[in-house]
Description:
- By secondary structure, the chain is α/β, with parallel strands linked by helices.
- Helix content is 44%, strand content 17%.
- The chain has two domains: 2-176 and 358-380, Glycogen Phosphorylase B (Rossmann fold), CATH 3.40.50.2000; 179-354, 3-Layer(aba) Sandwich (Rossmann fold).
- The chain has 16 helices and 13 strands.
- The chain has a seven-stranded parallel β-sheet with strand order 3-2-1-4-5-6-7, with helices on both faces.
- Strand 1 (2-6), helix 1 (13-27) and strand 2 form a beta-alpha-beta unit.
- Helix 2 (68-83) packs across helix 3 (96-111).
- The chain is elongated and about 70 Å long.
Amino acid sequence: MRIGIVCYPTFGGSGVLATELGKALADEGxxxxxxxxxxxxxxxxxxxxxxxxxxxVPTYPLFDxxxxxxxxxxxxxxxxxxxxxxxxxxxxxxxxxSAAYMAKQIVKTKNGRNVPVITTLHGTDITLVGKDKTYExxxxxxxxxxxAITAVSQNLKDETYKSFAIHKEIEVIHNFVDVARFNKKPIxxxxxxxxxxxxxxxIHASNFRKVKRIDDVxxxxxxxxxxxxxxxxxxxxxxxxxxxxEMGRSLGLEEDIRFLGKQEQMEDILAVSDVxxxxxxxxxxxxxxxxxxxxxxxxxxxxxxxxxxxxxQGKTGFMAxxxxxxxxxxxxxxxxxxxxxxxEMKEAAYEQACRFDISKxxxxxxxxxxxxxxxxxxxxx
Length: 381
């Protein structure tokens, strides 16, 4: 099959999932065309079946805000027609689903082809941005006009039906993780640099937005630090980073917290970590938590959104209500003081991650694509 994948190229979950999906499909022999405004951060390998098409947005004095959606739709049309794509798979509703609808209509007018569009919903495109009255009519229309709709968790599916007038079936295809990539032996020298005295290592990774409740990460770590020697790794960047750095200094923890910025090789960092903290206000699925589990880190999270679909209370990790720093702190302290329990839960986390391994999810997408694939192309692949 010849598949167009439209996504954001950033470190967010939707971009990571879309990129890893495309790479896996290319490994299976499909021709994959990424369409976005810059090369995705996870698109860091060469594969003869992978192509990248940059969306170039001209700037004119007339526009305070360059019309990215129009440029994106035009690029989609160009790629569809010049590379004879079988379908478009767009990740994140805004603005990809509406741009795909526009591109589909243009192609249909030009050569009569009806190019299928599959839209995958990821989270804030539904639970936050999409609910804004500025976008809601277009989001609702473009989702309903998609040939197939998927959501990365049952919770997100339910939220979509609750918030939008969607009259089509939404299929749940969970996020996935490449277990082989994250199942790495810890690098002893790396761990000794971070925790030279054998301290426990906690970690948080996100885009540092308010919804991630970065303050709670610092507060939980502060409670742990009162009980035992420990280090905290903060991976990522975003608007709340400065506040978190100031908070760490005000609590006298600056020597024990490392802000690492954006990192591509998360598998090496997660491999030396003991506990992954995710106190988010909402997670449609929690891909970062799943990657941590694949690396044998125990997840302590909120029970918000789809997190309960991957994190099993008392077995793979612990969950608490949003803002319940006391409970999350207690879970972390008790766990880190009990080496036997920590080891057992690390293995349980890994086994749970294996249920979402990429090898189990890719065939589900292929089966979905085959419903829309042209007969001659399906036979050829």
